[in-house]
Design brief:
Immunoglobulin-like, six-stranded antiparallel beta sheet, alpha+beta, three-stranded antiparallel beta sheet, rod-shaped, 2 domains, 1 helix
Length: 179
């Protein structure tokens, strides 16, 4: 008895190899297209956000002085203007005693209702009185820092690179009392 081993014919083998290659290429092309579109959207969104902060935000803290509040509480009076093209939704305020000692509480100034805190193009200048957090005594606050937050689409974006300061950046002289 003669045992005969038969395989598939070369024609069928070639057709199968070509079929697998085409199917694999289709899978890779589908994945590659969706991956590149996703990367493009992410890059576009990130670029739009970075450009909005770099070009459209210009917060100006023109003055800061210490005000004696009621019942011994101390406050700081800030004069703020937005010369940028984007409205500022809110501002974070930090109080520095020195380079290593920032008041642990950061006060956030927010617009009322649907209005932003500061409209664009310098249309309004706000003078606000901010209570100093317990961690910072008025006599020792040397520097005030403002960090703007804007809206890009539906996303709120903190523009840390466009912050503004008022006071002594060498942390030697405390803020003066308001006149």
């Amino acid at each position: 008895m003669k045992l005969s081993k038969k395989g598939i014919s070369p024609l069928i083998a070639t057709v199968l190899i070509i079929g697998f290659t085409v199917a694999l290429a289709a899978i890779i092309m589908t994945w590659g297209t969706s991956f590149s579109k996703s990367m493009q959207k992410t890059t576009e969104s990130t670029t739009e956000e970075q450009l909005a902060c770099a070009q459209d935000v210009n917060v100006d803290l023109s003055s800061a002085c210490v005000v004696d509040g009621t019942a011994g509480s101390t406050q700081i009076k800030l004069t703020i203007k937005n010369d940028g093209a984007k409205a500022i939704e809110r501002l974070s305020v930090r109080f520095y005693k020195d380079a290593d000692n920032v008041a642990s509480d950061t006060t956030t100034l927010v617009g009322v209702g649907v209005n932003p805190f500061l409209s664009s193009y310098g249309l309004d200048t706000k003078t606000v009185v901010v209570p100093i957090p317990l961690a910072a005594a008025a006599e020792t606050v040397t520097l005030v820092e403002l960090i703007p937050v804007i809206k890009v689409g539906e996303k709120e974006l903190t523009c840390a690179a466009t912050k503004d300061y008022f006071g002594d950046q060498s942390y030697e002289e405390a803020l003066v009392a308001c006149a």
